[in-house]
Amino acid sequence: MRSLSRSVIRPYICPSCRSGTVSRRRFATQSAQAPEIYDVVCVGGGPAGLGLLAALRAAPATSKLKVALIETQDLSKARSWKLGPHQFSNRVSSLTPSSVSFLRRIGAWDHVDTARAQEYQEMQVWDGETGSKISFDWSTETSPFENLPTIATMTENANLVRGLLSQIEASGEENVAIFSNTTVSSIENGTDDPSGPNLSAWPVLSLSPTGSASSQAAVPSRIAARLLIGADGINSPVRRYAGITTDGWDYDRHGVVATLSLSDPVAPTFPIGTRTAYQRFLPSLGGPVALLPLPNNTATLVWSTTVEHAAYLKSLSPRAFIAMVNAAFRLSMADLKYMMGMPRPATPVSDAENPHEDELTWRLQHTPQPSHIPPPVTGVQEGSVASFPLRFRHASTYISPRVALVGDAAHVIHPLAGQGLNLGLGDVASLAKTIEYAANHGMDVGDILTLERYAAERYATNTKIGAACDVLHKLYNVPGQGPVTWARSLGLDVIDRLPFVKSFLMKNAEG
Ligand SMILES: Cc1cc2nc3c(=O)[nH]c(=O)nc-3n(C[C@H](O)[C@H](O)[C@H](O)COP(=O)(O)OP(=O)(O)OC[C@H]3O[C@@H](n4cnc5c(N)ncnc54)[C@H](O)[C@@H]3O)c2cc1C
């Protein structure tokens, strides 16, 4: 391990910082205590931050770095997270094969409960306004007797976080400190201690416990980072400290999520065990509705819609909610809009009467059904209906001296393609590789020249995918039969009939 002696620290501080010509970065007030020094400090114990720590612990060169992770939430709860086999968390991500292969490579996938994860091999996507459709069906790419390649693996975020924590724990206690129940209250530049290291260009973090005092005994009040990583989500304090700006906007939409039970599949799947994801764009209602498979004939819902519609859906009884989800995949836009405006019963309705169910049953008799709809939803897991605001943010850069951003701290995108966390894991894989390269070549892990490899690898890729999701959202928010709608349906139909283009899109969806 490279020791953090003063002689090692000093050469890496650039002359301008030493002479104090660079203005001091600050995220709050100063404190005088000497900080404890780490090679890498990661703020944020979500999937991106824990993924980075697990990756650093997995590679021989970086496992010797002295690393710390700080998380406001209580990670012991995440470590002991448990649900029954028929219950699923409502925060689920579709991990692409390249995300899963990264998690396998660092050993974390061995700690994920794969009985709770669900691969899918087919995807049906169609436009609720025009009916044009594109099906991503791998059977055109393979022989009927081959196993179909996986498009993505649905994994509960909590299952992934628990797996990452187990993997980090399994890597041993040497050189790693996890400060959970601890918040970063301020970040500022350190000072040039005449009798110690010159930390005037190093980030120094002040930590405050958020949990019970007894569990916080070992938390130092201040720590210094040779490299500070912001994996601290959309409101990243690390990004603010580094003075990195973001571009973006709020979509004025919410993503309604829920865990649903499905009736038995209508037709037996072939090859056996094949599962399908469904997404229908609903331009007049503000965004797509998606039903993604989970084990045991359950599924997770992500319905992107206006804030008003989201509030309406959340206020419904379970039976009315189920009727609305079934309607969303089956009825015309006009019928669906009508049902979205139905009065909410003032008192709980009896088992015998349910206006939303009755309306759906009546309207279905007059609506021809395409073959590509999902099996009917029959139940909703109690307490699983929730909604999240949808936003687009992109940091102007991912790096600055001694700072790197990953995951939602760097970019937040529309969830319609299920790519947000996949981009975050892509960042983590790239940054871990960059740090490993630096460690192997005796470079300073926090030097801007070291970090440029990471930014160069990730910025353009993330910009492309974030922009594609934004364009798709805008394209599929134009209701009616105007030129955009025609172009949109023509686009889907043409792609659906061009095997080579479709194959290209499918390969890209794989990650
Ligand atoms: C409805 C919806 C559906 C989605 N579906 C998908 C999908 O199918 N596939 C996909 O890839 N992505 C999906 N996403 C996106 C995905 O959920 C996020 O990109 C991902 O969870 C972000 O992880 P992260 O670790 O970067 O950030 P976060 O999970 O936000 O973690 C940040 C952590 O930093 C901590 N923190 C913040 N400030 C401090 C502080 N001062 N001190 C200490 N700790 C701090 C927080 O407590 C938090 O734990 C979806 C998003 C939404 C809204």
From TrEMBL:
Domain of life: Eukaryota
A GO term from the CC aspect: extrinsic component of mitochondrial inner membrane
EC annotation from Swiss-Prot or TrEMBL: 1.14.15.45, 1.14.15.46
Keyword flag S-adenosyl-L-methionine: no
Cofactor needs: FAD
Database matches in Pfam families: FAD_binding_3
Catalysed transformations (reactions): a 4-hydroxy-3-(all-trans-polyprenyl)benzoate + 2 reduced [2Fe-2S]-[ferredoxin] + O2 + 2 H(+) = a 3,4-dihydroxy-5-(all-trans-polyprenyl)benzoate + 2 oxidized [2Fe-2S]-[ferredoxin] + H2O; a 2-methoxy-6-(all-trans-polyprenyl)phenol + 2 reduced [2Fe-2S]-[ferredoxin] + O2 + 2 H(+) = a 2-methoxy-6-(all-trans-polyprenyl)benzene-1,4-diol + 2 oxidized [2Fe-2S]-[ferredoxin] + H2O
Stretches assigned to the FAD-binding domain: 38-460
Keywords, alphabetical: FAD, Flavoprotein, Membrane, Mitochondrion, Mitochondrion inner membrane, Monooxygenase, Oxidoreductase, Ubiquinone, Ubiquinone biosynthesis
Membrane-topology descriptor: Peripheral membrane protein
Gene3D superfamilies linked: FAD/NAD(P)-binding domain
Subcellular location per the Swiss-Prot or TrEMBL entry: Mitochondrion inner membrane
GO MF annotations in UniProt: 2-methoxy-6-polyprenolphenol 4-hydroxylase activity; 4-hydroxy-3-all-trans-polyprenylbenzoate oxygenase activity; FAD binding; oxidoreductase activity, acting on paired donors, with incorporation or reduction of molecular oxygen, reduced flavin or flavoprotein as one donor, and incorporation of one atom of oxygen
Signal peptide start-end: none
Listed pathway(s): Cofactor biosynthesis; ubiquinone biosynthesis
Family assignment from sequence similarity: Belongs to the UbiH/COQ6 family.
Complex and partners: Component of a multi-subunit COQ enzyme complex, composed of at least COQ3, COQ4, COQ5, COQ6, COQ7 and COQ9.
Function: FAD-dependent monooxygenase required for two non-consecutive steps during ubiquinone biosynthesis. Required for the C5-ring hydroxylation during ubiquinone biosynthesis by catalyzing the hydroxylation of 4-hydroxy-3-(all-trans-polyprenyl)benzoic acid to 3,4-dihydroxy-5-(all-trans-polyprenyl)benzoic acid. Also acts downstream of coq4, for the C1-hydroxylation during ubiquinone biosynthesis by catalyzing the hydroxylation of 2-methoxy-6-(all-trans-polyprenyl)phenol to 2-methoxy-6-(all-trans-polyprenyl)benzene-1,4-diol.
Protein name (Swiss-Prot/TrEMBL): Ubiquinone biosynthesis monooxygenase COQ6, mitochondrial
The species this protein was found in: Aspergillus clavatus (strain ATCC 1007 / CBS 513.65 / DSM 816 / NCTC 3887 / NRRL 1 / QM 1276 / 107)
